[in-house]
Amino acid sequence: MTKISRVGLAGVVVVVALVAAGCGGNGGTKLDGVAATIYDGKCADDTGSSVTVYSGRSENLIKPVLDAFTCESGISVRVRWASSTDLALLIDTEGDRTDADVFISRSPGPVGFLESKGLLTSMDSSVLDLVADEHRGANGTWIGFSGRKRVLVHNLDSVPPSDLPTSVFDLTKPEWRGRVAIPATNGSFLDWFTVFRDQYGDDVATQWLDDMVANDARYYPNNVAIVEAAHRGEIDVGLVNHYYNYRMAADAGSAHRAANHDLSDEDIGSLLIISAATMTASVDDREAAQSLIAYLLSPSVQRYFTRNTFEYPLAGGVELNPALPPLAALSIGSVDFDALGGGFEGSEDIIQKSGITSN
C-alpha cells in the first residue's frame, strides 16, 4: 500500500459515519426537495429490510436517490460517505466483517481493486442486463449507472477557440507553460490517469505527467476549484469532469466566463468515466441490495442524473439533457478494469513522486 493510501485509510476510519437515508416506516408520507423530483408518490410502509451502502459518490448527488428508493420501496438505507478509494481500502481491511452490502464508486477502478481481493459477489442477469455489456464487469460484479466525460475547461476571454488543443499531449508544449490546471489528487483524475497508464503504459503516462510538471502545470485540489479559477481568469485551461462547468453555468448564466472544450474523440483526454455499483461478498439481504442497484438504472433516477446533475445516463430509453453534447468519446467500459485490480494505488504513487502538488 502506498503512503497516500495509508493516510487516506487512517482518515476514513476517523471521519466517516453511518447515517440513515429516506423515510423508512413513514408509509403514506411524501418526499420533498430534490428527492421528490425522482419519486413524487406516497411512501411505502417499512418492509423491515435494510441495505448498508458505502458511497464514494458525494452525499449531495446520491442522497436524493437513496431517499427516493426508501420512500418508494419501503427498504431502509444506511450510508457511509467518503472517497471511493478510502472506502475500497476500508472494505479490504474489514474483509468479511464489513457492514457494506452495496458499494457505490466514482468509477470501476476501486471496484476492480476489491474484485482482485475476492471481496465482491456477482449480480443477477436481470440487473446486469439493464446496461450494455461495456458498462458492466466481465464477471458480473459491477454495473455502471452514469457517466462523466473528461474535458478541458477554459476561460472564454483569454483563450480563443482556435488556440485550443486537440490532445492532452499538446498541453506539454511550450505555448501552454504555466497555463494548465490539474486536479492531481482528485479521485476522477486518479481514475483517468489509471486508464492512461493502461492504454499507453507506465513509461508514457509517467513521462506525460513529468512533462506537465516541467511545463509548470498548476495544481488544484479538485474539479470545482479549477472551474472557478477558469471563470475568474486565474488559469487559462484545466482538466476536469464535464458536469461541473454545466452546473456553475446554470447557476451564473451569462456572467459565467468558462466553457468546456472537447478534445478529439479518440484522445485519452476525452475518456468517459462511469460511476459503478456493486455488492460485497458479505451482503446480508441480496434481494434488497439488488433492488437498490437496479433502482439506480430506473428511468426516474436516470432522468435525475442527466437533468439535475448533468451526467450521461447509461440505461436505454432515457433522453439526454439537451445542454449536453452527444457522446462520442472513449468509454471506460472499453478498459478491462477487472484486470487492472489495484492499479489506482500505482497511480497514486506516480502522482506523488511527480511533484505536481508542489506546483
Structure description:
The protein is α/β, with parallel strands linked by helices. 39% of the residues lie in helices and 17% in strands. The chain contains 14 helices and 12 strands. The protein has helices at 3-15, 35-38, 59-73, 84-94, 108-116, 125-128, 187-200, 202-214, 223-232, 242-252, 286-295, 299-308, 337-340, 343-354; strands at residues 18-21, 50-55, 76-81, 102-105, 120-121, 142-155, 180-182, 218-219, 237-241, 258-261, 272-280, 312-313. Strands 1, 2, 3, 4, 5, 6, 7, 8, 9, 10, 11 and 12 form a 12-stranded mixed sheet that branches. The chain is globular, with a radius of gyration of 20 Å. The model is unreliable at 1-16 (pLDDT under 50).
Task: Kindly summarize this structure in a few lines.
This protein is an alpha/beta fold and 359 residues long. The chain has 14 helices and 12 strands.
Task: List descriptors.
alpha/beta, globular, 12-stranded mixed sheet, 359 residues
H/E order of the elements? Answer: HEHEHEHEHEHEEHHEHEHEEHHEHH
Number of helices: 14
CA-atom Rg in angstroms = 20 Å
* Overall pLDDT level: 88
For the largest beta-sheet, the strand count, sense and barrel status come to: 12 strands, mixed
* Annotation, overall tally of beta strands: 12
Helical residues, percent: 25-40%
Distance N terminus to C terminus?
A: 25 Å
Strand content: 15-25%
Structural class: alpha/beta
Shape: globular
Uncertain stretches of 5 or more adjacent residues: 1-16
